Amino acid sequence: MADKVILAIPSKGRLMERSLEVFKDVGLAIEKTGHERGYLGRMDKLDQVEVAFLSASEIALFISRGRVHMGVTGEDLVRESVSDADARVDFLKRLGFGHADVMVAVPTCWIDVDRVGELEDVAVSFRRVHGRRLCVATKYLNLTRRFFSSRGVTSYRIVESLGATEGTPAAGTAELIVDITSSGATLRANNLKVLEDGIILKSQANLIASKAVDWSSAANEARNEILSRLST
C-alpha cells in the first residue's frame, strides 16, 4: 500500500478556483509544482498528499475505479458516470459551492403538465399525432433513464446534448429537457418551467473518497486530517 494520497482537484474554471480557496481557508493551501500550466501540485502542511489537476468528470471516474484516493467534484457528475456510486464512493463532505439542480423542464405552454407522472400521457398522445416519441435533450443520460424509469415514464427518446440544452425545444430538436439550473433565469428566458416534482438531484461540489483503494494507515491519517479541517 502506498502511503501517498492522491487528491484530485478540478483543472479549470470556477470549480478549481473555489476548491483552492476552500483548502487555503483551512490552512491546506495547494500550489502547482513545475510548470504553472502543469497538472501536478502539492498541499501545504501535508507532505504525503500529492495533488492531481483533472477534469471534474475524470475525477468522478478515477475515484470510483480506485485510481485516485480523494477528490473534489460535483455530485451530479458522480451519479451520472457511476451507476453504483454509493458502493464505490464515500461522499465525505459537501463543500458549499457549485450548486446546481438536475431537473426536468418542459415548455411553459404545456399548461396541463405540472408533474413528471403526466409525461407518459403526453407522450402517448404525442406519438399518436406525430408518429414518433417525445425527445428529451440532456447530457445526463443515465440520471434521466433512472429517474424516468422510477416514475413510470417510458415513451421517450433521449437526444444527447452537449451544450445550450435549454434552447433545444425552441429549435425543435427536443420537446423537453433534463439539465442543471442554479437560478432558473435561463429556463425562463427560453420559456421553460421545472415540473413540480421534477428535481432529480440537488447537486453541489463534494469531497469524495474511493472505496476501491486499499487505504494505508498513513493515507487514512491524511484523509482524516483533511476532513477534520474542512469540518471545523
Describe the structure.
With 232 residues, this protein is of the alpha/beta class. The protein has two domains: 5-98 and 204-231, D-Maltodextrin-Binding Protein, domain 2 (3-Layer(aba) Sandwich); 100-203, D-Maltodextrin-Binding Protein, domain 2 (3-Layer(aba) Sandwich). 34% of the residues lie in helices and 31% in strands. The strands form two sheets. Strands 2-3-4-1-5-12-6 form a seven-stranded mixed sheet, with helices on both faces. A hairpin with a 5-residue loop joins strand 3 (40-43) and strand 4. The model has no long low-confidence stretch (mean pLDDT 94).
Number of structural units classed as domains: 2
Integer-rounded radius of gyration: 20 Å
Secondary-structure element pattern, one letter each: EHEEEHEHHEEHEHEHEHEEH
| Strands side by side in the biggest sheet | 2-3-4-1-5-12-6
CATH class of the largest domain: Alpha Beta
Q: Tell me the CATH superfamily of the largest domain.
A: Periplasmic binding protein-like II
Tell me how many strands there are. 12
* Annotation field: number of helices: 9
| Dominant shape | elongated
Mean pLDDT: 94
Give the helix level as a range of percent.
25-40%
Quick one: biggest sheet?
Answer: 7 strands, mixed
Low-confidence runs (pLDDT<50, min 5 residues)?
A: none
Q: CATH topology of the largest domain, what is it called?
A: D-Maltodextrin-Binding Protein, domain 2
CATH-level-2 architecture of the largest domain? 3-Layer(aba) Sandwich
